[in-house]
Amino acid sequence: xFSGSEATARALLESAAQGxxxxxxxxxxxxxxxxxxxxxxxQGEELxxxxxxxxxxxxxxxxxxxxxxxxxxxxxxxxxGIGMDLVGRRKDGSEFPTEVSxxxxxxxxxxxxxxxxxxxxxRKRSEEALRQxxxxxxxxxxxxxxxxxxxxxxxxxxxWNRAAERIFGWKAEEVLGRPLPLIPPGQxxxxxxxxxxxxxxxxxxxxxxxxxxxxxxxxxxxVWTAPLSDAQGAIRGVLAIAADSTERKQWxxxxxxxxxMEAIGRLAGGIAHDFNNLLTVITGYSDLVLRALDKANPxxxxxxxxxxxxxxxxxxxxxxxxxGRRQVSQPRVLDLNSLIRDMxxxxxxxxGENCEIIPGLDxxxxxxxxxxxxxxxxxxxLVLNARDAMPRGGRITVETANVDLGAEYVRTHPGxxxxxxxxxxxxxxxxxxxxxxxxxxxxxxxxTKEKGTGLGLATVYGxxxxxxxxxxxxxxxxxxxxxxxxxxxxxGAAAGVEPxxxxxxxxxxxxxSETILLVEDEEGVRKLVREMLRLRGYRxxxxxxxxxxxxxxxxxxxxxxxxxxxxxxxxxxxxxxxRRLLAMRPRLKVLFxxxxxxxxxxxxxxxxxxxxxxxKPFTAELxxxxxxxxxxxxxxxx
Length: 638
Fold this sequence. Notes:
Blueprint: H1 6-15, E1 19-23, E2 29-32, H2 34-40, H3 58-73, E3 84-89, E4 95-107, E5 110-119, H4 121-143, E6 147-152, E7 157-160, H5 162-168, H6 172-175, H7 188-199, E8 207-212, E9 218-229, E10 235-244, H8 246-292, H9 299-323, E11 332-335, H10 336-351, E12 355-360, E13 367-370, H11 372-388, E14 394-405, H12 407-412, E15 419-427, H13 435-438, H14 456-466, E16 470-475, E17 481-488, H15 505-508, E18 515-519, H16 523-535, E19 539-543, H17 546-555, E20 562-566, H18 574-584, E21 589-594, H19 599-603, E22 613-615, H20 620-631
Parallel strand pairs: 12-14, 18-19, 18-20, 20-21, 21-22
Antiparallel strand pairs: 1-2, 1-5, 3-4, 4-5, 6-7, 6-10, 8-9, 9-10, 11-13, 14-15, 15-17, 16-17
Helix pairs in contact: 8-9, 8-16, 9-14, 10-11, 11-14, 17-18
């Protein structure tokens, strides 16, 4: 059959790593090497004379016979290693994947086909494993919440995952094969530098950059890059992973702003506390001097001016206390709709004739738990701020709405929690504010007005926070401003807003020689209050500390009708002093006073709700009225 050395040909046939089968035109096997027997499970000469189709599954035999006939009509050589993928059938009936390369030879005047057969089971398993790994990788890439893209060395995109579509807005078919479209104008050089570093093998980690969405909006992005290498280690492209850090940046900015406002609030509250002590002395001694001066005395006008200045300063300190959330609050359930309706005539007179107030109130009650006087202050300040933003006049809209805020709103508004709220919104048609102004408007003494004190919006901020609310400002230059406040919605019936009570007959009565233990660590305030009390006929025992007051309480043999004490003192607070004195003298009544009351201290039990309290600075008349209320009450107050 073979020309040349038959022994040499047979040696080559039997040493081949592939199965080799020689077939005639009828499809009969004329020769099969040992490797063929190993592959298909046959021994010795079992295959000789058998049809070639014996090596194929039954389902493929008729098709193979037709293909064989076609091959003998037009024979052609196919290099080994470049063959057809077929399925082989072993003697035991099991099947396995094969690769077959064909050639032909003319021998003795007849055409013979030579089939080179390889078992490619391992290659198929590797290919399947690689396919599954690629599918898994594709799923991971597309399931990732991070934007992932890759580009070739020319910068054209070769990968763009679903998160990149969602975050940046471009579909994959819009960007693949093109340069990255995310780079803001003016940052092209920075991007090229980053790309070149990565292309040269220097991946970058957590690079903070601004990137663009398809709609042109900016996104704060944290970017990681890495070079992509082939099997030989040559860099063929660049991979980038980006996290949308816009929300995180917002939270960080909100946290920084909150911390700054909290620090300013503590400072403002502390200053107001100390300043209130000084104002107590100024206004108090002014009252005493005025009481002593004849009405015709020319000095009287000067003293009245001093007293008036003290009262104006007192109002400023009250605003500082409101900003610092240090006011004594008396919250109750109230309906914002009713409050706004009641205040509408006052607001209309306040803003002048060239402005108009347009109410837009929720048809259902808008009930919140808050101090009515403080909410009135918020509304007045916001309306006045809106009026000042429209020097030529315009419309001011005051709205309420019962709203339920979900996770999506909370996610984009740091500091908020999901739940039921009442929204109070005040909008104007004024000149609006830029971002730089918006970041400072709630700070004390920051003002864009020529004659503004800068405390109006600071007061609003403090009251809203003290009432467990949140405030947001929406404004753009030329498009007006909207202040939206969200208070937690309250359940229960709303109480009416009562007018301030007039002094009772008991409040106008002078002292009745009761003994009062006065405890105040500020000497100037203590001397003033002592003088006020003595002028009204009270007997006064005074102490500059809690320890000294306890010694007086033990040593004094007569009755002590009332303890008048500052709340915050060194080493022993007023509440602790009252508790210990009450253990000695159960019938003692207590009146606390302070220029600075931290609401958190109230909430933690230093002062209980309903405690008799006198806010500094106070006049002699206010002191007398409060003393009579406590002394004439039927029950002990502490």
